[in-house]
Amino acid sequence: MWPTSEEWLHATDRQGRWVKTAPRSLLMAEIREYSRQHGEAPMALPVVHIILMTREGQLRLVQRGDKPENPYMWDKAVGGHVVWQDPALPLSAFEANVHKEMAEEIGLHKIEIAANPLDFIERLHGGGVDLQQQVLLRMIDYDPWQGVMVQVKAGQPWVKRLNVAVYAGFYEGPMQFVDGEAIATCSVDPHALRAALIENPWRYSDGLRVVIQRYLPLLLVGTQQERVAKQTGPVKRDNLERVYE
């Protein structure tokens, strides 16, 4: 029988349409087995990804804990599966789970999600958001079929498909590691990280590679790096070795 205490997820197809609903562990096992046999996932699971920056243009990473997936790798700030009653998974489902995951993983409760890019910029420059105490986000992408390669402690890597809403924004205050998903944090120059992902890919989750490849220009909107790049060209690489000391 399916365990009643476990999270139930709505799996979806390439277009984000409902396929089935089942406990998370059973869906993950089915997708993992299929992927290892066929090199592709048969369905996607709904998730939110939250990317945090500083106004200086530093990307805030967290180091994952001793987890079954991507253990001890550096990753984006927050991510998690979307748990929601309605299998249609409206936008409100993703936004509610942004608040849930931010609180559970890094202890943040004061979160503002802008309605659109103009609203985001107006809030950012309006002076009403204290980035030491509050998180300011906007949705930058929705992809019902985003693929990532999952590394595991034992066994072969496998392809996971995500029905993902991606949020990005600013926060400059402390993080509290609440549920063991993350154990450390650092801030890095995203341009330097792009090179490090090629040189030392085993240190990072594949999802972080996707973040840099797809969203780097969007992440720099509103940062000091955006203003510098417009005036002087690309930002120089930083030395990332301090992250691993």
Radius of gyration: 18 Å
- Let me know the CATH homologous superfamily: Nucleoside Triphosphate Pyrophosphohydrolase
Order of helices and strands: EEHEEEEHEHEEEHHH
Detail the poorly predicted runs. 234-245
Number of helices: 6
Write the CATH fold name: Nucleoside Triphosphate Pyrophosphohydrolase
Proportion in β-strands? 25-35%
Into how many domains do the coordinates divide?
A: 1
Tell me roughly what share of residues is in helical segments.
25-40%
Instruction: Give the class-level CATH name.
Output: Alpha Beta
The count of DSSP E runs of length 2 or more, i.e. the number of strands, is 10
Give the second-level CATH assignment, the architecture. Answer: Alpha-Beta Complex
Mean pLDDT: 91
- What structural category characterises the helix and strand content? alpha+beta
Give a short account of the largest sheet: 8 strands, mixed
**Silhouette:** globular
End-to-end CA span: 47 Å
InterPro entries: NUDIX_hydrolase-like_dom_sf (IPR015797), NUDIX_hydrolase_dom (IPR000086)
Keywords: Hydrolase
Domain Nudix hydrolase: 43-210
Protein name: NUDIX hydrolase
Tell me about this structure:
The structure is a single chain. With 245 residues, this protein is of the alpha+beta class. It has a single domain (8-244), classed as Nucleoside Triphosphate Pyrophosphohydrolase, CATH 3.90.79. The chain is built from 6 helices and 10 strands. It has helices spanning 24-38, 91-106, 117-126, 190-199, 206-219, 224-232, and strands at residues 8-12, 18-23, 44-53, 59-64, 74-75, 78-81, 111-113, 135-150, 158-170, 182-188. The strands form 2 sheets. Strands 3, 4, 5, 6, 7, 8, 9 and 10 form an 8-stranded mixed sheet that branches. The chain is globular and about 50 Å long. GO terms for molecular function: hydrolase activity. Keywords: Hydrolase.
